[in-house]
Amino acid sequence: MNRNYSRELDHILQNPQNRGKHLFLHSCCAPCSSYVLEYLREFFRITVFYYNPNITQEEEYDKRVREQKRLIQEFNTQVEKGVTSAYPIKITEGIYSKELFFERVKGLEHCREGGERCFVCYKLRLEETARRAKEAGADYFTTTLSISPLKNAAKINEIGEALSLEYQVAFLPSDFKKKDGYRRSVELSKEYDLYRQDYCGCVFSKAERDGRISRAEREKNAGELLSHLEQLHTTEMGQERIKKNLSLQGKGKGTPMHTQVAGLSSGDAVFLNGAEDVVPWCAEKIASPHALITRKGKNWYVETDGCLFTINAYSYTIITAHRVKTK
Whole-angstrom Cα distance, residue 271 to residue 253? Predict the structure, then answer.
């Protein structure tokens, strides 16, 4: 049976006896905490616990914790000025030990993002939150993690409730992305000009992020080149170089064009449909749906059918082409 954690939280907040109780709130970053703090500071005395040993790069860690402290200061200034009747927010920082994170996820390096490795990371951070909540005498503990559409709210609550039994501190159920929570966090990030990172923090999520960017960049490059195929050209020297490198030979008009180059021996030749111009043949190869198009600096590189074409990205000149050795 699926539980509605957001509704369960509402029931707790509707109980006037819970107002003013101490919530020990794990925060992963300022943007994710923004809506959660705005929402809960009217009900609880909150201590934000910034504990994220999963963040691999120290400069990234430092940047995120500075933004967290700045946001809390902004919220507390509103309380001081009487803009809101909310409780002031405190913050405490856990020990930053990326070595501990790598120790915990050892053997799970190749798990998909959002899978078992992430569940171990949830528990690492939530367990320290529960331990510190008990030390602080807090009434509840929870985390901002469930605000992310990429985080598994059911697993977060499952881990939190198990730790609640172990540490004897109540876990506050939540799925903060619900009720437009995630959308509101994006709005608040813009309102307070918060640094909004595009990966969770660990080296694995960064690699996954970089892969998305690389794929998007490749698609952009491919689209840009393919939309300018009519501008492809080469020099007289380029014509001769390409013919020589790819063993292309003109045999007069009407001769069929062989399109496969991969696997040819050095003495084999591909015949052009027409006597001299290699550009139409190259353009057909470059437009192939299985062509791999990448850009490095001022050139595009297109690999297809055992050929590698080099094209100037500004002038659309086919500089050269040669065969790719196959294993």
Answer: 11
Rounded to whole angstroms, how far apart are CA atoms 227 and 280? 15
**Calpha distance 311→321 (Å, rounded):** 9
CA distance 161 to 156: 9
Residue 268 has phi, psi (to 5 degrees) of: -75, 150
Domain ranges of the chain: 5-211, 228-323
Which amino acid, one-letter code, is at 5? Y
Distances (CA, A) of 282 to 225, 250, 314: 13, 14, 18
Tell me whether strands 140-143 and 318-323 are parallel, antiparallel or unpaired.
Answer: unpaired
Residue 54: count other Cβ atoms within 10 Å of its Cβ.
Answer: 26
Both tokens assigned to 19: 């107002």
Q: Within 13 A of 261's CA, how many CA atoms are on the CB side?
A: 26
Q: Are 151 and 115 in contact (CB under 8 A)?
A: no
pLDDT band per the 50, 70, 90 thresholds, residue 205? confident
**pLDDT digits 0-9 by tens, 64-92:** 999 999 999 999 999 999 999 999 999 99
> Bridge partners of 23?
46, 140
Q: Other CB atoms closer than 10 Å to residue 27's CB: what's the count?
A: 28
DSSP 131-186: HHHHHHT-SEEEESGGGSTTS-HHHHHHHHHHHHHHHT-EE----TTTTTHHHHHH
Band of pLDDT at residue 281, cut at 50, 70 and 90: confident
Residue type at 274? G
CA angle centred on 316, ends 312 and 319, rounded to 5°:
50
Query: Is 145 in contact with 151 (CB distance < 8 Å)?
Result: yes
Cβ-based neighbours of 180, under 8 Å, separated by 6 or more = none
The sign of the torsion formed by the CA atoms of 233, 236, 237, 239 equals: positive
User: What CATH code would you report for 5-211?
Assistant: 3.40.50.620
